[in-house]
Amino acid sequence: MPQLTDQGAIDEDERERAGTWMTPAEYGASRAAVWTAAVVLVTDTRGRILVQSVDYRADRLLPGGAVDAGEAPSAAAARELREELGVDGRYPRGLAVDWIPADTPGFPPEMRFPGEILHVYDGGTWTPDRIEAVRLPAQEITAIQFAEPADLPALMDPGDARRALSALRARVNGSGAALLEDGRPTAPTALDRLGVLRTRRIPQHGAWHPGPVPERLPVQGLSAWLFAPDGRVLLLISRATGAAHLPPPAAGSTQDALPLGYRHAEQGVHARVVARLTGLASGADPQYARLLATPEQVRELSDWGPAGDDELAAVHAARTRLGLPVATRTPPTELPEEGARR
Q1: Are 145 and 51 in contact (CB under 8 A)?
Q2: Residues 124, 316, 330, 47, Cα dihedral to 10°
Q3: Can you tell me the distance from the alpha carbon of 41 to that of 126, in angstroms, rounded to the nearest whole number?
Q4: Which 8-state DSSP code applies to residue 218?
Q5: pLDDT tens track for 98-137
Q6: For burial by CB atoms within 10 Å, which of 60, 105, 116, 193 has the most?
């Protein structure tokens, strides 16, 4: 920062010499001016994102808006949700801070858009009762909907969609707010690099049944919760689509394999087993990246409906039986292609 001095104390010789001396007025004039805004990312129990329709533009927006003069961004987020959705709350947890450049398309020249710093706060997961309590104002907000994350680019301005998806990945990562520039993380995590959630998740909404699959029911698919020693599990990410999948049981060397349960829906039976992961073979399918993630992160990247909570409870019961710890939430770790062994 240049050294400041009182304007009256500067003589002509001091003004002419090279250096970093600036008057307060000169320094103030040299600083960039930007707008400030705050929005809130809210999901429902299926992991879909709340977006709202407004009467002044065609694309959808996250709830929120401009920060008033002298107002803290978190206070603005709470005020905007109260005004726009009739919902009281506090949103202290930040998911992302985005720098939006002054040359961003869509702003009319007469607006003289100077660029913007936009804060994205975590509004949490809303239950059906809380969603039912939403009350829209007489004007501005015309409707709300919960959208599949992959549908955001078709519903929102490109920068808004990038920002919302980056913020959602930051929530799944659980390592603090992401720093963004025009919606793109300055330090991308594995979820960002692989474009997780850029395509629609495959819904598996069948009821959860614990234990082995009855012989009379044909199994349409079999996948596994494979536990590493630290309590995290193996997760496969398609490099082509960013889709998240539990692996097949043969994805690694295992021990103590047990049937966990199955889902039974119109599409058929999808069975799950659980086991300790003792090693990964090299030369795995190059179409998939292999990550270690917490069971909760796997749940958040999947569309399993209400029965997903029942499955998650069964997974943790099995983890306890295997004598493994509760995994600490950290950004999912991509494993090397050459394989790994315990």
Answers
A1: yes
A2: -30
A3: 11
A4: P
A5: 999 999 998 899 999 999 999 999 999 999 999 999 999 9
A6: 60
Closest to 292 (Cα-Cα) out of 191, 204, 152, 183: 191
Q: Output the pLDDT for position 29.
A: 86
Q: In the block, which residue shows the tokens 């409707």?
A: 143
Residue spans of beta strands (DSSP E) within 196-332: 207-210, 219-227, 233-238, 244-245, 253-265, 268-280, 288-293
3-state secondary structure (DSSP) of residue 40: strand
pTM of the full structure: 0.91
Q: Give the bridge partners for 270, in sequence order.
A: 221, 263
Residue 123: closest CA among 154, 144, 100: 144
Q: 139, 147 in Cβ contact below 8 A?
A: no
- The phi and psi torsions of 252 (rounded to 5 degrees) equal -160, 175
Torsion angle of C-alpha atoms 28, 32, 33, 38, degrees rounded to 10: -130
Hey, what's the torsion of the CAs at 189, 190, 192, 195, to 10 degrees?
180
Residue showing tokens 């819904």: 203
Place of tokens 């699959």: 213
Contact (CB, 8 A) for 260 and 319: no
Q: Which of 76, 74, 71 is CA-nearest to residue 92?
A: 74
How confident is the model at residue 342, as a pLDDT?
A: 47
By three-state DSSP, how is residue 227 classified? strand
